[in-house]
Amino acid sequence: xxSAYTIYLNRAFFRLETLKHAVQHTxxxxxxxxxxxxxxxxxLLHLDITLDQVWEEAREADANDRMNGSWRSKTLDEWLVxxxxxxxxxxxxxxxxxxxxxxxxxxxKMDPFDLGESYII
Length: 121
Hints:
Blueprint: H1 6-28, H2 37-63, H3 74-85, H4 91-100, H5 104-107
Helix pairs in contact: 1-2, 2-3
């Protein structure tokens, strides 16, 4: 993996572990927290599938000698842009975001490495 993805993958791994612990904790308790189990499992499953897709893209790139410092993961780039703009990855929230403003569809096509930069003048 190119080093440009390091910080983002570390954050994704941290979130994955946090979600796993939250699901385990919630399943062990039978009180009011049970209503949270479905959304937690959905988030965990989505992130796990996303990372699996990223690894498959990386495996294919490596097998075809395309893995270098400029290689990009389409899946991870899309995930990062959605994470930046919405912090929610379900279809309803993405569709709502697109419908809210004519320019939002284009925002989801941005390069994630260009987001959140600040310039000091």
